[in-house]
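Quarterly update from the structural biology core.
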Amino acid sequence: MVYLDNAATTQVCPEAAQAALRAMTEDFGNPSSTHGPGRTAREMMKAARETVARSLGAAAEEIYFTSGGTEGDNWAIRGACRLMRHKGKHIISSTVEHDAVRRTLDYMESQGYEVTRLSPGPGGAVSPEAVAAALRPDTVLVSLMLVNNETGAVTDIPAVAKAIRASGAPALVHTDAVQGYMKLPFAVKSLGADIMTLSGHKIHAPKGTGAQYVRRGVQLPPLMLGGGQEGARRSGTENMPGILALAAAAEAYQADSSAGERMAALRALAADRLTAAMPDAVVIGGGAPHILCLSLPGYRSEVLLNSLDAMGICVSKGSACKRGARSHVLEAMGLPAKVIDGAIRVSLSRFTTEDDIRALCDGLKQAHDRLFKVL
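Predicted structure, tokenized:
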């Protein structure tokens, strides 16, 4: 199998699997318990929090463990609006966000908030200038993803944050960094976000675990109430296998210091080979080292995907959450229907090889030459 759908999910790395297994079979205590196994679990969770914090250049007390990106996006938007409700009811986001953000914004509109959804530029990213032009005295939140999960377009979050500060608007900055974490080099201080959402299964940790960065001083209200875990901001018995696996995956990713360069080189190789072999191919967006969005106008993505799947090559037509629906991201970019309908997403990981890319290029060229275009 040639697996090139890593923006949907990644293979769990050995370090993360071992950490999760240990938490389930050896050090399985509840970190809220006061006995020996509980204290051991608590110390292990503290070490995991410090590891994730270091990977972001954050303080340990600014990291809260969650179930992943959807929970984090919901918590960020709903919590920030509740925190800032006395200052206004205006939110800025974009038309190319993940559904976890889009649907939460729909909910906020039903609660009386006004949402300005900015359109992306030709490359798929939202410009800081567009954000600056949309800011108002009652803007309380700007929520923009760092790396688009379908096109790999990178939004300049530091410039967005700078524009907000310069305007004097009270808005908090939230970024869904699920696709950017470990793929782009950044630290929270230089990024400028007040709240950042991360997910473990994009960096070779198991599904169902993630983290939220909340800048010190931002009193983000909890999304869930209960026993007061995670500093009373995220109640519920902590998912120790997932938390320890997340930290192990982050540590292993950081130790692989050339991963970003390798992925960028492989992405460039794929783009060059595919466009050379199929001159009608169109590369869409780009910026992140691990996502290549490519279209064969006139073909149907579903047919291309099925043909590649039969060869043991796994790619996708966009976000795994869309389940067959047409991409709202590519529509928002104003692309022609035949380009949208022929688009596929190739996404790499730090384990992707040159042989994988060669297999993809050969397989897609074979499908291109064998299949009929849609008339």
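Residues 257-370 form a domain with the Aspartate Aminotransferase, domain 1 fold (CATH 3.90.1150.10).
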